[in-house]
Design goal:
Distance between the termini: 107 Å
Shape: elongated
Strand content: under 5%
CATH topology of one domain: Protein Binding, DinI Protein, Chain A
Helix content: 55-70%
């Protein structure tokens, strides 16, 4: 009886495995979805615009700081200052230095938060598109490429997922356009609202170039 039971169990397992579709899984390249999909491109553009805007503000503050530092390195300029004027210049330098540090901290915090929102938004888009592809192709699961050590190229459904992502993006854009009336009460076409972009941020400081660290308050040089 035991042998018959074991044989029957083995036979059932074999039949089950042979009946399973080896192509019932799909693989998606997350990075490609970001760089090639419409929503990914929009997110990247918004992220770059935000980064450029904040970088410009930091560069202006750094320029002011460097101009004051240059004055402290000019003996002739310092000789023409009264003690009170020199002290005022030092106070201004310290204030700018502190302001620069605050801006830098805010800079990276804002970019990190924007990057997190972008990843979340694109992940949601990929998830919805993958579900549609899985239903159409009768796939048991769609996995992120990064979660697999190896997969056959035939399992890649990234292009299909991007097509579905673009369809959803176009539908959402159309809804936004029709939901925005002009001042006369008539509906008008308008560009889709920008969300913080994706781009895939660089590994260090979200791809942002580190600005120069402000120097300590300079002192008047001895002749």
């Amino acid at each position: 009886m035991i042998r018959r039971f074991l044989f029957a169990s083995l036979l059932a397992t074999t039949v089950s495995l042979s009946a399973a579709d080896p192509l019932s899984l799909g693989i998606v390249n997350f990075t490609t979805c970001i760089t090639d999909s419409k929503v990914g491109k929009q997110e990247q553009a918004s992220f770059e615009a935000l980064k450029k805007q904040m970088s410009s503000l930091l560069e202006d503050k750094e320029k002011e700081l460097n101009e004051i530092a240059a004055k402290f390195n000019d003996p002739e300029y310092l000789d023409g200052l009264s003690p009170e004027a020199e002290e005022d210049l030092k106070n201004k330098f310290r204030a700018l230095n502190e302001e620069m540090n605050r801006y830098q901290n805010q800079y990276y915090q804002v970019l990190n938060q924007a990057n997190m929102r972008i990843i979340q938004a694109i992940s949601t888009s990929i998830s919805g598109a993958s579900e549609k592809v899985a239903k159409d192709k009768k796939l048991a699961a769609v996995l992120n490429k990064d979660a697999s050590f190896y997969y056959a190229p035939t399992l890649d459904v990234t292009k299909l997922v991007i097509v579905e992502m673009d369809k959803s993006f176009d539908m959402d854009t159309k809804k936004q356009d029709t939901m925005q009336p002009d001042q006369g009460g008539k509906k008008q076409m308008s560009p889709p609202a920008k969300a913080p972009t994706s781009g895939v941020a660089d590994e260090t400081n979200n791809g942002v170039k580190q600005t120069a660290t402000p120097v300590e308050t300079p002192t008047k040089k001895e002749k």
